[in-house]
Amino acid sequence: MKIHVQFYAQLRDLIGIRELDVDLSKGATVRDLLDQIYAKQPALRSHDKSILIGAGVEFVDRNHKLKPGDEISIMPPVQGG
Question: Which domains are seen in the chain, by residue range?
Answer without folding.
Answer: 2-75 (3.10.20.30)
